[in-house]
Amino acid sequence: MVEIDSIVEGRVVGITRFGAFVELEDGRRGLVHISEIAHHFVKDVNDYLKINDRVKVKVIGISPDGKIDLSIKRVNEDQEYLEKLERSRASFEQKMSRFLKQSQEKLSDLKKYRDGKKKR
Q: In whole angstroms, what is the distance from residue 104 CA to residue 107 CA?
């Protein structure tokens, strides 16, 4: 059973000027619109896909009448998001580490200054 957000494998069975039709493992067919083939502008679908190509696709929609909308460019979207999140976390950790170091240095300087005033 094909569900929205699932990633499945299929075979390109038709190419049009507006996209490609992919036959899924369960025998159903869906459309990969030309805008869902790559993250950049695609002028001609034939530059990216050929009949009988095996492709991984993400199910992005299923209409009430059973039409299946597919995407090739969104297959790695979740992985890319996780990688971006991990890079962001690493950056945050570096910033926090730098902030803590600077705070400790300032507190140390303040304590030295305060201790120096008490001795007078």
A: 5
